[in-house]
Design goal:
By secondary structure, the protein is α+β, with helices and mostly antiparallel strands. About 30% of the residues lie in helices and about 25% in strands. It has 12 helices and 16 strands. Strands 1-2-3-6-7-8-9-10-11-12 form a 10-stranded mixed β-sheet. A 6-stranded antiparallel β-sheet has the order 13-4-5-14-15-16. The two termini are about 25 Å apart.
Length: about 400
Amino acid sequence: MGYLVKGKFPLFLAVCFLIFLPGSAAGQDFRPVLARESRGGALYRAGIFSVLELNGSYREMGRQYGELLREDLQNFYREAVIEFFHGEKGMSMEELKKTAFAVFGPYPRRYREILAGMAETSGLDLEQHILLNAVEWYPKIAHLSAGEARCSGIAAWGPCSVGGRVVFGRNNDDDPLYRKFSKYLTTAVFKPGDGSFPTAVINYAGAVYAPTGMNSRGLFAEMNAGPWMGFSLNRTSIFTAIFSFLQDFPGLQEMERAVLSTLPNLASIINVADGESAASYELSLQDSRRADSEYDGLLVSTNHFVNPAWPFSGVEDRLAGLTVTRRENLLQLGERYRGTFTPGVMMKILDLGLEQGGATAGGTIYQVVALPSERTIWLKAPGVQDWTEIPLASLFGSENGCP
């Protein structure tokens, strides 16, 4: 371990790489630095962001996670569950538990094992970890912030990007209250010994599901909320499904069949990319369809379905988080920068607020730029920490998955 500081990603290469990224935070050094090793796992710190490298069985990876992030997990549980949702928002512990166990109930066993492992080493018990795992769901299911969960995605490749490689930009939007928890953003790289692909998940500390992730083959996926249709809590979470897809499939074509075979627990838009192209899939509670882009080498997705085959009558833009406006803004920017997209250009686009013709708003909690061909991401928490490079390739190491 210690790949990021022991010669596999030399400083001079990092500097040279950043020089060719216009708009990147080249003047600020947030490179991940090894902070601690334990039980076969490692913790890196990249400014406020945590980066975990976890190895072994799912229970062992959970034990490593719990011990390495012990202080963060305890603080996050206290600040978010106890002080904020229970204290400030007045939700009873029974109400919180009801939501948390509804989220946890359909979890696959391997992800239950991660949480169980955390509970053995973190100083929190399993029930507390289940409560922390559901921290994004309390305001949504309790209708404290209906309509706040909005996201944007933009991918450029082929004629739109330099060298034809996919560059993906993603805004994770939510209730602005979550900005206070940005310091707990964690990139956890899971490297199980079961033959699945090593997979990086970007989420809050202690949350075991994948709203954004990449595997060791350079398959990237992110999820946007779709048109509001309510929840189907008896189904496996679409977020744990995405985690499984990244572990199980090497490329976009293989993952497409799995996505289109899935009925989600809430209406979703799943955007997927590998090193060569990107695709968008629109999942209602009853059906799943691919949404092909009419723009060569450019894909933009916000929070409404765009496949004309859906029998929907239109979108009320303001009630849906300005989803049409955000999409139109990103399409215009995509055309403006056609042929010039690099990670740095994508950062510039994501740095633009709605009032500047972009898509970023007060509810943008974190942003990701991904370069799948290089297994590299850049992570930003607006107003908290600027663009931070996380070279996942060195964390993935040699793959333990099948060819």
